[in-house]
Amino acid sequence: MIHRLARITAVGAVLTAVLVGCTAQPDPTATPTAVFSSDEEAFAAAEATYRAYVDALNAVDLSDPETFEDVYAWTTGDANAGIRKSLSTMHAEDLTVTGTTVLILVQASSPQPVRSSESVALDACVDVSAVEVSRQDGASAVDPARSDVQSVRVTLTRNPGAPFNYLVAELASRDGEPQCGE
Q: What start and end residues bound the annotated signal peptide (predicted)?
């Protein structure tokens, strides 16, 4: 009996040591910058957020909803609701996406003091010419009238409590602003 009790105590001690050793440590890179030192620094953070969002979209596998989570992490508000609905619908319809979206221009939508603003608006030109969305039978689900290069207004909201400083809050197609060309 004493031998069995000693063995149970030893196993308990080992499990305790393992569990304590596995306690998650805070990620030192997850500390956000609370205040920007310049408008340029704030704009760079907003642009980096939008680029990370596009990268996350490019990594989506419509057959695997777990890949959607990275996209959701970069969004809030209307943008989050819209992308959740869109990706869920595409998954339910068993669509497949191939190709990569490429940002060819990102600029401030107008001169604005972004350092002190709660939101920032960017205008972007997005090349989607290599992106194909296909149905299960191989037929394209892309609107034949889709432009290869699209103009988009991106509104980002400050997010001081997260590892990144902005979240994509709204995406809106633009007619010719900025001039993206084709």
A: 1-26
Tell me the helix, strand and coil percentages in the chain, rounded to 5: 40, 25, 35
Tell me which residue of 102, 101, 98, 86 sits closest to 135, measured CA to CA.
98
The continuous run of DSSP H or E covering 96 comes out as strand 96-98
Residue 98: what pLDDT?
A: 95
Residue 119's CB: how many other CB atoms inside 10 A?
A: 15
Q: Considering only the top CATH level, what class is 32-174? A: alpha beta
Cis peptide leading into 178, omega within 30 of 0? yes
Domains in the chain: boundaries: 32-174
Task: Check residue 21 and give its pLDDT.
Answer: 36
Separation between Cα atoms, residue 14 and residue 7, nearest integer Å: 11
